[in-house]
Amino acid sequence: MKGDNEIIAALNRLLTGELSAMDQYFLHARMYQDWGLNELFERISHESDDEREHAAKLVQRILFLEGKPDVASREPLNIGEDVQQMLHNDLAYEYKVANNLREVIALCESKRDYQTRNILKVLLEDTESDHMYWLERQLGLIDKLGLQNYLQSQC
What we know:
The chain is an all-alpha fold. It has helices at residues 5-34, 38-64, 83-111, 114-145, 147-152. The chain is elongated.
């Protein structure tokens, strides 16, 4: 099925974002692992896997629309130097991804591509109710418990 070129381009921009987030989470997870923060390693490694799944869904949709998935492009990564900065950087990235998803959902609505819209709504729900929520909660715990107590709970 030949898709709309503007939607395919927008999906490729989303794909770049998901792949970039996957890379950032991958490195942050390995940093947590190196520091002995096993709970954070497990969760952020899982987030990296989730981003790969999101990317796979976008690739499948782009291919279905007879587009060419751009799996080579990446946005600049924001690698943190400590736990709090890493969590902040990941949350900022998730906010950006959510905003981009909302914009492309609106584009799909305007172009009457409801199937692509529905796929993106699932990704947005996952981003908002899982990724963003968890990161916001971790930063809230740091504020309430203090960084040292939080870090002890992550070993």
